[in-house]
Amino acid sequence: MARPREPQTTHLRNNSDMDQETFPPHVLIFPLPLQGPVNSMFKLAELLCLSGLHVTFLVTDHIHTRLLKYSNIQSRFDGYPGFHLETISDGLLENHPRSGAQLMEMFDSLKTKTKILLKDLLTSGKLNSDSRRPVTCIISDGSMGYTCDVANDVGLPIIYVRTISACCLWVFFCLPKLIESGELPFAGNDLDTPIKSIPGMEGFFRRRDLPMFCRSGSLSDPNLNLYLPEITENSRAHGLILNTFDDLEGPILAQIRAFCPNLYTIGPLHSHLKFKLVGQSSSSPPSSNSLWKEDMSCITWLDSQPPKSVLYVSFGSLAVMTKDQYMEFWHGLVNSGSRFLWVIRPDSVTSVPTEIPLELSKGTEERGYLVGWAPQEEVLAHRAVGGFLTHSGWNSTLESVIEGVPMICWPYFLDQQVNSRFVGEVWKLGLDMKDTCDRVIVEKTVRELMEDRKDEFRKSADEMAKFAKQCLMEGGSSYCNLERLIKDIKAM
Ligand code: UDP
Questions:
Q1: What pLDDT digit, counting tens, does each position of 286-342 carry?
Q2: Domain of life, per the record (predicted)?
């Protein structure tokens, strides 16, 4: 693994009287404390370390405990003397679920309690030492606007990062316009009404494809109010980093640039890192930033399956299913006749049925494999995987795109309703099955993706994967934007 040498000054200096200015710039990265953002921000941290910058990575105590238990961050970052892991409280009790319906409580607590702690941390001197400068720049999630207030208070430049898709960010930017035009709020169940006031999405975007909270029918919905100020919020920072690439979201990025001209599109981040680590190939074993224990036995199971025969099924780290939805999926998967590898996260079903019908256990034994958490990047890169039934989380979507794996989308919340529409209607990388998981529809959709239309979807997925890889190569858009980001951080 090609690790860059630490600049020599770092090793020579252990005297606090020496000129701190000669040390590399020191970036504080503060991700949203959730699996997806933590995962992609670790990739960014490693990319910055590879370019010789010093990085302090700030995680909540809750995330820290789980990372130490289940990921390989400690051994991995031992190779980077400029990397430092720091913790902060999210202000919640340890047994708080921090998912599903209670996610908003975490946002509130971060804003009220963690904000003060962040300012204390930055002014305490705790983050600098004899071998590192004080923090010179903050990179934090743009959905935590209070980090910008703190940065302004302590006089530090801040760059925002968003780990959602650009297409969803653009929908957030247009929320005030949707309200002005009377398209929001809407009442009733007609979800197929076209949405007209989102520039660039006319003609294919429906009420159904708006983020889930738009269906509440009320302007006082707390989620709506959280995302309403996005346009002003995102333009406060020095720049905006997006985990996407120009060939995927070009037209939407052009719209966002009108409000945030300094965009750094440097994704897909997980592959960007792999490319930097092993040159021009994405085949190195992925690093793990998992908050659950990865069950590696599924790779052995995949090894014994025919090429492109397996549907990988996973709904990410936050989505929760009812017992009925779980049973509908299970029947649909078994009835489809396809082989499947299904991730059932321990807390992902509200109540697990105690009695399993015989046809399900028999069908699963013959063609299926169930795990609690999978090494997803490795799974999607496996030759046996031919499709992905996903909740359309942005990390999962990008991980599927770069491996050329067609998708069936069953979005849960936030950006997922938007992403799934783009997967099905704009990028033609699969089928959008939002709002239903009736067993008959699951069976039909799986057959369509894995059998009837497999050639058509594989062709478009292969083409998009090629574009994704090209943008990471020297001279490609994401490659150049990362270079520019590093140059800008060094100039700060
Ligand atoms: N993931 C994983 N193993 C699993 C399921 C998910 O490693 O069994 C990872 C996946 O690779 C992705 C992240 O968890 O990087 C989920 O992020 P995403 O944005 O897709 O969805 P979220 O969990 O935020 O809803």
A1: 578 999 999 999 999 999 999 999 999 999 999 999 999 999 999 999 999 999 999
A2: Eukaryota
Q: Is the CB of 387 under 6 A from ligand 1?
A: no
DSSP-derived secondary structure for 289-352:
--SS---THHHHHHHTSPTT-EEEEE-TTT--B-HHHHHHHHHHHHHHT-EEEEE--TTSBSS-
Whether the pTM exceeds 0.90: the reply is yes
CATH of the domain at 391: 3.40.50.2000
Q: Is 267 in the pocket of ligand 1 (CB under 6 A)?
A: no
Atom in ligand 1 nearest the alpha carbon of residue 397: 20
Beta bridge partners of 342: 313, 370
334 lines ligand 1 (CB under 6 A): no
Contact present, 167 and 424 (Cβ < 8 Å): no
Q: How far is the CA of 395 from the centre of ligand 1 (A)?
A: 6
Peptide bond preceding 185 in cis form (omega within 30 of 0): yes
12 lies in some domain: no
Q: Whose CA is nearest to atom 5 of ligand 1?
A: 316
- Rounded to 5 degrees, what angle do the CA atoms 69, 70, 74 make? 75
Per residue in 186-238, pLDDT tens?
Answer: 998 899 999 999 999 999 999 999 999 999 999 999 889 989 999 899 889 99
Q: How far is CA 74 from CA 214, 244, 281, 409, in A?
A: 41, 27, 25, 34
- State whether 270 and 316 are in the same domain: no
Distance CA 179, CA 198 (A): 11
